[in-house]
Write a sequence for this structure.
């Protein structure tokens, strides 16, 4: 298992903390008092989070804490009932899910959502559609512009698949892949949209320890290669504590702690949320 690389978190003008290397850059994501209510139930409330330009951040908490709801708010699957989300300084209030994606947020899901009957390469190329430059008629009549863009997309798909050493599986049917490989393909497909912020919802779910260790190294490789930020939800605390630079802990829809892995591991409120309060003798 790779050793954790400690990162110093430093304050920025908004009084949030980001990695020291990102302090002179605009944060890629700022959530301010974000929340949503379903009927009378406040599923997420007062959610404040800032993510640096190249930060690997974690969002953790017990089951039912509201973590996936936060991802749904960021990607406009749900429209917030309160608060603001700034993506690279841009208010996403009026954006749709597709617009948020085009402006830089890509995600994976708890439950794999691949096109099972398409090939591995086709799954990746589907995500590139918004960046293809040929028009409808060029595609219908297979004009030179179409073939040029298809060649570019093919080469790009293989390049992205090579991150996980999956280029040899390009022609395999996605649904025939082992579970762990399908997880990795979903990450590759998200990267194909050219995000500036990648949201990973339990990326290590169902993986064995060696696959998880490889995933950890690949998450770092993705950040370093593409110079993007990554926010992950994960229950594997070994992965979270070894890879995340800043961590936010959610419980009953509210953040109860934020800080470095060392801060979080020593925080009594976090320990209580996960382990329960000790009964007095």
């Amino acid at each position: 298992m790779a050793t954790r690389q400690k990162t110093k978190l430093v304050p920025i003008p908004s009084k949030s903390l980001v990695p020291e290397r990102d302090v002179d850059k605009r944060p890629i994501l700022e959530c301010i008092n974000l929340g949503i209510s379903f009927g009378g139930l406040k599923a997420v409330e007062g959610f404040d989070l800032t993510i640096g330009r190249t930060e690997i951040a974690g969002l953790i908490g017990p089951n039912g804490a509201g973590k996936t709801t936060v991802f749904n708010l960021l990607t406009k699957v749900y429209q917030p009932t309160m608060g603001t989300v700034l993506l690279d300084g841009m208010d996403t209030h009026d954006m749709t899910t597709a617009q948020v994606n085009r402006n830089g947020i890509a995600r994976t899901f708890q439950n794999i959502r691949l096109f099972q009957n398409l090939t591995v390469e086709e799954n990746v190329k589907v995500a590139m559609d918004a960046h293809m430059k040929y028009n409808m008629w060029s595609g219908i009549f297979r004009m030179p512009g179409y073939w040029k863009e298809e060649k570019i997309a093919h080469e790009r798909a293989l390049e992205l698949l090579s991150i996980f050493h999956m280029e040899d599986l390009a022609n395999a049917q996605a649904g025939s892949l082992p579970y762990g490989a399908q997880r990795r393909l979903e990450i590759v497909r998200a990267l194909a949209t050219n995000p500036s912020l990648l949201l990973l919802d339990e990326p290590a779910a169902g993986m064995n320890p060696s696959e998880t260790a490889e995933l950890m190294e690949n998450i770092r490789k993705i950040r370093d290669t593409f110079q993007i930020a990554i926010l992950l939800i994960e229950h594997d605390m070994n992965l979270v504590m070894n890879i995340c630079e800043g961590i936010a802990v959610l419980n009953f829809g509210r953040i109860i702690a934020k800080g470095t892995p060392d801060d979080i591991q020593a925080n009594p409120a976090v320990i209580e949320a996960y382990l329960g309060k000790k009964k007095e003798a």
